[in-house]
User: What shape does this take?
Amino acid sequence: MGRSAGRNPEERPDAAALTALTRQEQLELRLGYGFANPALLTQALTHRSLGTPHNERLEFLGDALLDTVISEELYQRFPEVSEGWMTQIRSRLVREGALAKIAGRLRLSECLRVGKSMQKGGGAAHEALLADALESVIAAIFLDNGHDYAGLCAVVLPWFAEEIAAISPEMPTEDAKSALQEFLQARQWWMLYKGKYVPVTIEAAKKSVNIYDRSKQQAPHVDFTVTLALEG
Assistant: This one.
């Protein structure tokens, strides 16, 4: 897994030793990875408002790495599902709010380094900042561990264990807009636009337009039923 400068992050220190650790070293314990080059973790936790080196480039790399890690996990775990299903589930797992929640469990905000202007605005608690920092940490682990992808997966996937365990192949994935667009495309309906037949779009469906089938015959009137479900 990860390398460590004389310390295995999986070996939990006693209370006295834990108190003696820096905040960043305590974070390494929560991450499950000990950095050979702690400066990489420091950079990953540094917002550009504090100056350089900051974490924007690491965030770019971490975003791509996380997409790959989650994509492969879904591919291996759910062999019977469609590409579209995996795409939407991955989007749920890596969206800003989901990443901020995981960053919260890791208490990442305790170690974020931001400028004074960001501190006054409570920057360390912003979802976007937390999500970006989590992606940066992922990139830092990958670089620190010699580009070991398998090792990266072993560290990162446990952070998502709760969310991944809640996934079922039967769970709905489509939002209303996507479902309506698929409905329209499946029927190959057309509309007249500037004297030409063009595919019906969601925007057009919101208006009162004549809809035609593939033979350019006017289609029968269609009523859409929208169901709203509130969580919690």
User: Anything to note?
Assistant: The CA atoms of residues 181 and 203 lie 10 Å apart.
